[in-house]
Every structure is written in C-alpha cells, then in structure tokens.
Write a structure and sequence with these properties.
Elements: E1 2-6, E2 15-19, E3 29-38, H1 41-47, E4 64-72, E5 84-88, E6 97-101, E7 105-107, H2 114-118, H3 121-134, E8 142-145, H4 151-163, E9 166-171, H5 176-181, E10 186-189, H6 195-202, E11 208-213, H7 218-224, E12 227-235, H8 248-258, H9 264-270, E13 273-276, H10 286-302, E14 309-314, H11 318-326, E15 333-337
Parallel strand pairs: 8-9, 8-11, 9-10, 11-12, 12-13, 14-15
Antiparallel strand pairs: 1-2, 3-4, 3-6, 3-15, 4-5, 5-7
Helix pairs in contact: 3-4, 3-10
C-alpha cells in the first residue's frame, strides 16, 4: 500500500510518500480501499510537533477516509462486504488502504461522492458537538464562527442556519461573497484591527450568544469579552500555534502563557459558559458519536447539510495540500486522493 509519512517535525517538505505492507484485517476489522482522505488542521500541528496526541515521527496521521470495503476480518457482519463507506481513523488515514474496526464505519449515502463523504466525519461531528450538543444554539440566538470558510466553519454555518440563528463569521475579504452566498448574515474581516467593533455593531452592542474559536491563545480572552449574558465560548483548536516561526518548544510555551484562566466566580456573575471540544478524545463514546452522525446524515438526506470540497490533491502532492491550508487559501474541505 501507499502511505504519506511525516518523516520529521517541520514544514510541508517533511511529508514523504512510501510503500508499506498491510496485514490482513484482524477480528472485528475490515480493510478499506481508500478513495479520499480528509486533511485536518490537527495533521498540520502534528507535522510541526504541536499536537500532543499524535505519534512521534516517523508516523502516518489522518483521521478520516472514504472508500470501499475490500476484506472482512473474523466476526465482521457480512453486510459490510463491498460496501461504500466513510470512517473515522485513529491516525493512519493517509493511506490508500486501511484496516479499521467495523464500528468506526458509516455507510456512504448514495447522493454523496467519495470526496464529499470524506469531508464529513471530523468537520461535521466537531461542528455538531460545538453548535448543538455543547453550544445549545437556539433559533433567534447569534453565533460567531471564526474561520467561517474552513471545513468546520462551513459545517457550523449550515447547522446554525437550519436552527434559525443569526450568523456572524470571520474570514478574509476574498471569501466574503462566497460565505454570504452560503447564507452568512454578517461577514467580518478578521484582518482589520476593529473586527471586535464590527461584531458589536452587528449585534447592536449586545454581544454574541455562542462563539466558536479554533484560533486559541489571546483570542480566547478577546472572544470571552464578546459574550452576552448566557453566552457560551466553545474552543476547538489552537491554530495560532502554527503561526509561530520559532522552535517547537518555544511555540508550546507561548500557547501555555497566552491561555487564559477562567474564574468560576466571574463565570457565575457574567452568566457565561466556556467549553472545549476535541473529537480525538471521544473514542470511548461510540454511542454518542453514532447518534450525532445519524442526525448529520438525516440532514444530508434532507439536503440542508452539504459537504463542500474545496480542492483535492494527489498523494504525491501532500506537501502542497498542507501548504494550501496553512496559507488559509481553502474555502471548505481539502482532501488527498490516492
């Protein structure tokens, strides 16, 4: 099989395409012939040595794939044979074939392509957990989606629109027209120093009910100041860490020093909530994940959830794919195809 390896910590040039052998699927596993692989920001952080959960290089990362079941291990239900599926992978997804537990498979809706299906697992489950499960967004409330043009951002926008919320999103000006076409109510230019004021103006000075922040560091503190009473701040990443040009350990130290501590008395007095989401730590909650995915696939079937694939790169251009995301050029999901 072909795999993309992180050979060492560093830039996109550290990614290397290699050949490897794949063992037969073990009990409870299937072999999937992969047609598309989702790239996530966690993969970029792992490459830079800023993602503690990732294996140390040399390693193969990747959290989601779509493809066709090629072989069944002992004990797997025959119904999975030759099925078109998408799945969560606990690393190892940057491969043209993977062995994974059958309970991590989801049957692919016929209306989706392999590429669209590979864009679902991480982005839509993360967005669902942020917006519906923990964010508790309701009709008429406001939600501020940072990096609204990214994969999670667009998924969150679709969920928020279906709920009937007022949507605000930060993005570079070149993405504003597209986002408004997707139903975003207020596009905010995050590169301007007064973006905080833009948000307050759009909410008539009241602040925001729910804020989704993948940036982290000092942004958490700034976003907290935007919450109106009963407002919630949801953190789901620290992408600001990848902007540091210094040594890896120095970058990690900067993250720690810039992370705010939230005082419980202040939270009570402000009627505010702060929560965090890390789908990679939900492996022991299979029933919850299955329930969330059922709701997501219902939205796909009804047509109001539609994964947007921005661009696909062949395995040989994995470095270019990482660079494309790092430069914030994507509007939607970026994929790798064997």
């Amino acid at each position: 099989m072909k795999q993309i390896w992180i050979t060492r910590y560093g830039g996109p040039e550290t990614l290397e395409l290699r050949e490897a052998a794949l063992a037969p699927p073990a009990a409870g596993e299937v072999t999937v012939a992969v047609k598309a692989v989702g790239i996530n920001f966690a993969d970029l952080m792992a490459r830079k040595g800023l993602y503690p959960d990732a294996p140390k290089p040399p390693c193969v990362v990747g959290y989601e794939v779509a493809g066709k079941v090629e072989a069944l291990g002992p004990g797997v239900e025959p119904r999975w044979r030759d099925k078109e599926v998408f799945a969560l992978t606990r690393f190892g997804g940057y491969s043209d074939k993977v062995n994974l537990p059958a309970n991590q498979l989801f049957e692919m809706p016929s209306r989706l392509t392999f590429q669209e299906a590979a864009a679902i697992p991480v982005n839509y489950l993360t967005a669902y957990q942020l917006v519906v499960v923990m964010g508790g967004l309701r009709a008429g409330e406001s939600v501020l989606i940072h990096n609204a043009g990214g994969g999670v951002g667009l998924a969150a926008l679709q969920l928020a629109r279906h709920i009937g919320a007022v949507t605000l999103g930060t993005a570079s000006p070149s993405k504003h027209a597209f986002l408004k076409g997707q139903g975003l109510d207020h596009a905010i230019d995050y590169r301007r120093k007064d973006w905080f004021g833009q948000v307050m103006a759009a909410t008539q000075g009241r602040g925001v009910d729910l804020i989704l922040d993948p940036i982290g560091g000092p942004m958490w503190r700034k976003n907290y100041r935007l919450l109106r009473p009963t407002g919630r701040l949801g953190a789901f990443g620290v992408s600001s860490a990848t902007e540091s040009r210094g040594p890896r350990l120095l970058s990690l130290l900067k993250i720690g020093l810039s992370t705010p501590w939230f005082n419980m008395i202040s939270l009570m007095n402000g009627n505010h909530g702060v929560f965090g989401v890390n789908l990679g730590h939900m492996w022991g909650e299979g029933e919850k994940i299955a329930g969330w995915m059922a709701a997501i696939l219902a939205g796909v079937k009804e047509g109001w959830l539609k994964p947007r694939v921005d661009k696909s790169f062949p395995f040989a251009q994995s470095g270019e794919a990482h660079r494309y995301i790092e430069e914030r050029r994507n509007t939607g999901k970026v994929l790798l195809t064997p």
